[in-house]
Design goal:
This protein is α+β, with helices and mostly antiparallel strands. It has 17 helices and 15 strands. The protein has helices at 7-10, 16-25, 47-52, 73-86, 127-163, 183-188, 201-204, 207-223, 276-284, 304-309, 331-344, 402-405, 407-410, 416-438, 443-449, 454-464, 471-474; strands at residues 29-33, 39-44, 92-97, 103-112, 119-125, 167-172, 178-181, 229-232, 239-249, 252-261, 289-293, 299-302, 346-355, 361-371, 378-385. Helix 5 crosses helix 11 and helix 14 (416-438) crosses helix 15 (443-449). The two termini are 28 Å apart.
Length: 475
């Protein structure tokens, strides 16, 4: 922290009343606490927060730890210990209990007023950020429910496709080449797992039967149906009956070709069942981080990928620690995750960040699940590093910025430095537009979400010509 250089001349001699006014104006809520952790006085600069904490008028004379929920009391002790030793603490997230029983999140930083004097706690109301996170979570959950229905349909198709005792090939209509083949088809064609993909009709059937198969496919494409044909396989010479149907997927046409040996039952290829031990071993060596916590968010176990992302040498360094020590820009992220897990049981694709022990930060995507375990549930978190993934998505009916469309055309004509600057400008503009949309054009909230000061945020708005800036904004 950098203090004022000339406080005695620039601020003058402040009396007690002036100092109290400055302290109260510096935060949404300000507390004066003695060395024993007892609240001496309280001031609010946020009327909504004051009405939410109706019991705050009775706080003077009570320990600070008695005004917060149970899981925040250890944080109170840590905050007081830190300000005693260093005269100033880091920002810590505490949850007060409102009159209706809800948890009210406040971010506190403590400063010692003078040597041997009381501590002053400056609090920021985190409810707007928590509400914004919740709205985003609700939108993600709504989208996920739609995607889940589509995934369920695809899963059923995949299961039927793989388990079918009938040999099935999927051919694209344009080139009439194999796109997919189920295990029964690979067995019938005497082919390895990946060698079937890309094969043409001449590679699958003998030459004298190719015309019959092509006529079948032409009839199916024209009328949707065709008569089964009797041909022989090119590799084994086995006589088979071929039938086909047409379907469309992602604006492309495909043939579903069924192959049955003439007079012989097809062989079903049963998939190998994996044991629980193999599953656990796969999770342990998965490239994505995986963490199991108790109902309060304390880590029970973590796999190697998480330890690598968190820059930890062993699992023992993580066990017992709160997950928000590494996960999230603040503890609000983990609180939102846990609240949704308790309410819905699952969370998918929650975007946040993960901080390593040595300062390295990465953008991550979290999917989580709640698992019943006696009286309290345990939570499992799958954490994927999405930092290396460059993905530009467009909303329906909205065109990509022109500079993005032409980036590939600039390669070889401009320097790498200029290309990076161009891409950075486009990404900044997209992020600002997304933040304004998520906050319903609330610029103060959008600036806080992006980690920018309001002055820097307005500079970028003017730079990219976003929003209707008034004369006051431009100044």
């Amino acid at each position: 922290m950098k203090a004022f250089r000339f406080p005695h001349t620039s601020l003058g001699a402040l009396d007690t009343g002036s100092a109290a006014t400055l302290v109260a104006a510096a935060a949404d809520v300000s507390l004066v606490v003695n060395d024993a952790g007892v609240i001496l006085d309280i001031a609010f600069n946020n009327d909504e927060l004051a009405s939410e904490l109706e019991d705050s008028a009775n706080w003077p004379g009570r320990p600070l730890a008695a005004t917060v929920v149970e899981d925040s009391r250890s944080k109170v002790l840590g905050l007081l210990d830190e300000v005693r030793s260093e005269a100033r603490s880091k920002w810590r997230h505490l949850n007060h209990m409102s009159a209706n029983g809800d948890s009210v999140p406040v971010l506190y930083c403590a400063v010692q007023s003078r040597a041997g004097g009381p501590f002053v706690l400056f609090g920021r109301d985190l409810r707007p950020m928590s509400a914004l996170q919740q709205r985003l979570m609700n939108a993600q959950q709504s989208m996920e429910r739609d995607y889940s229905r589509l995934r369920d349909v695809e899963m059923r198709y995949r299961l039927l496709f793989q388990m079918s005792s009938e040999a099935v090939l999927v051919l694209d209509t344009a080139r009439q080449r194999v796109v997919e083949a189920n295990p029964a088809a690979r067995t019938l064609l005497n082919a390895k797992d990946d060698s079937v993909q890309g094969l043409g009709l001449a590679d699958v059937f003998q030459a004298d039967g190719i015309n019959s198969v092509q006529l079948l496919l032409t009839s199916v494409r024209a009328s949707g149906r065709g008569e089964d044909v009797l041909v022989r396989l090119a590799e084994t010479g086995v006589e088979v009956i071929v039938s086909a149907s047409l379907f469309r997927q992602e604006n492309a046409g495909y043939f579903l070709v069924r192959i049955m040996p003439s007079g012989q039952p097809g062989q079903a290829v049963a998939p190998l069942a994996e044991t629980k031990t193999k599953l656990l071993r796969a999770v342990e060596h998965a490239p994505d981080g995986f963490v199991v916590t108790d109902h309060d968010g304390a880590i029970i176990t973590a796999n190697g990928s998480f330890l690598e992302m968190a820059q930890l040498g062993s699992e023992e360094q993580a066990v017992g620690e709160p997950l928000d020590r590494w996960l999230g820009q603040s503890s609000v992220d983990l609180n939102v995750l846990i609240a949704n897990l308790r309410q819905r049981g699952t969370v998918r694709f929650f975007a946040t960040s993960l901080r390593g022990e040595f300062g390295v930060s990465a953008d991550v995507e979290v999917s989580a699940v709640s698992v019943a375990n006696g009286g309290h549930p345990n939570f499992g978190f799958a954490i994927r590093n999405i930092g290396p993934r460059l993905r530009v998505e467009t909303r329906a009916g909205r065109e990509l910025p022109r500079s993005v469309e032409q980036l590939s055309e600039l390669i070889g004509r401009v320097s790498m430095k200029d290309l990076v600057r161009e891409a950075t400008d486009v990404i900044e503009k997209l992020c600002i537009e997304a933040a304004l949309e998520l906050t319903e054009d609330n610029r103060a909230s959008a600036a806080e979400m992006l980690g920018l000061s309001r002055q820097s945020f307005y500079v970028k708005l003017r730079r990219y010509g976003l929003g209707d800036l008034t004369a006051d904004d431009k100044n």
